[in-house]
Specification:
Layout lengths: L1 E6 L3 H9 L11 E6 L10 E7 L6 E12 L3 E8 L2 E12 L2 E11 L10 H22 L5
Antiparallel strand pairs: 1-7, 2-3, 3-4, 4-5, 5-6, 6-7
Length: 146
């Protein structure tokens, strides 16, 4: 999976919003809640728990996220787990054209019965990340209070 978006906001502002996963429900309607489950400031080792609507099932499901590396205003490396499946990913942030280029690169690792249909997983993940980054752009570029 590889998605990129250019957001017309400063790197520090975009990174600050993205690194705090409790902001995710405002850009992804499938995410019902996010809770930071580790102590201290957000850095390598920080963990989050997400409650999501399961696609096509109508039920909720939980996901966990572990930050494996954080370089402020530059990158976030993470591991995410939803059920038997896991994903490793990197988000990078760089100044570009007066704004911030955000790039998501991830590798899904389906587990359990999902291994059989794993060829669909990257395509679905790609679509989800394209949508998330587009919503991130709209959210951060929309003036507050409008």
């Amino acid at each position: 999976m590889d998605s990129t978006v250019l957001i017309e906001r400063p790197v520090k502002e975009v990174f600050g919003f993205v690194v705090d996963l409790t902001n995710v429900p405002s850009i992804d309607p499938r995410v019902q809640s996010v809770q930071k489950t580790s102590e201290g400031s957000i850095d390598a080792g920080t963990t989050f728990r997400m409650r999501q609507k399961a696609p096509h099932l109508g039920k909720g499901r939980e996901a966990s996220v572990l930050y494996t590396a954080v370089k402020p205003n530059r990158k976030i490396d993470l591991k995410a787990r939803v059920g038997p499946s896991s994903t490793t990913a990197r988000l990078t942030f760089e100044r570009a054209d007066g704004g911030t280029r955000v790039r998501f690169r991830g590798k899904p690792n389906p587990g359990g019965p999902l291994k059989v249909i794993s060829s669909l997983s990257p395509r679905q993940g790609q679509q989800k990340w394209d949508e998330r980054l587009a919503r991130l752009k709209r959210t951060l570029e929309t003036p507050k209070g409008h």
